[in-house]
Design a protein that fits this description.
mainly alpha; about 170 residues; 9 helices; Four Helix Bundle (Hemerythrin (Met), subunit A); globular; about 0% strand
């Protein structure tokens, strides 16, 4: 089973890969790019990446799916809507620090035994839900960010950029 530190490091790695991908965007890039009219723009995508993983984790800790009180998520979403592209790396660093503080307050036993009302997960333990919600959200939208960039401005991106945040 994954432990607390491994889970935290996986989430942080996803945030860092997103920052790496952002660093590949050429000057003058049109952040209004969207692959299809019914999809998010690149700007909307990076705005989402700056808050959704953390807010889903917070939702697990606060039983948001049980109480249906989405105030924190809604406030974070509103704040992210004003994010300018150049502030993306800093916003991701803020999210990383929020995760560090959150995980500092958790213990291994709580991750494995505390039951939470799952969102769209079939799992019931806090630890499993922290994988299913914030980690999988970060992975999925990091991949989408990679695809947006590869198809619009950075055809040179490759597997290492996407999965490791590294140039090979």
């Amino acid at each position: 089973m994954i432990n607390k530190e491994q889970l935290l490091q996986s989430i942080i790695q996803e945030c860092n890969v997103c920052k790496h991908l952002y660093s590949k965007i050429p000057e003058g890039y049109d952040f209004n790019y969207r692959p299809n009219e019914n999809m998010r723009t690149t700007l909307e995508l990076i705005q989402y990446l700056t808050f959704a993983p953390y807010e889903f984790a917070a939702a697990m800790l606060c039983d948001t799916f049980k109480t249906n009180d989405w105030t924190s998520y809604s406030n974070a979403e509103k704040n992210a809507a004003s994010l300018k592209p150049e502030n993306f790396p800093e916003a991701m660093d803020v999210q990383i620090e929020k995760f560090r503080k959150m995980f500092a307050g958790l213990n291994e036993d709580e991750l494995n035994t505390r039951e939470v009302v799952p969102g769209w997960s079939l799992n019931k333990t806090l630890g499993a839900n922290l994988i299913d919600m914030p980690l999988k959200t970060a992975v999925a939208y990091r991949m989408q960010f990679f695809i947006y960039l590869k198809s619009s401005c950075c055809p040179q991106l490759h597997t290492g950029n996407c999965w490791d945040g590294m140039d090979f």
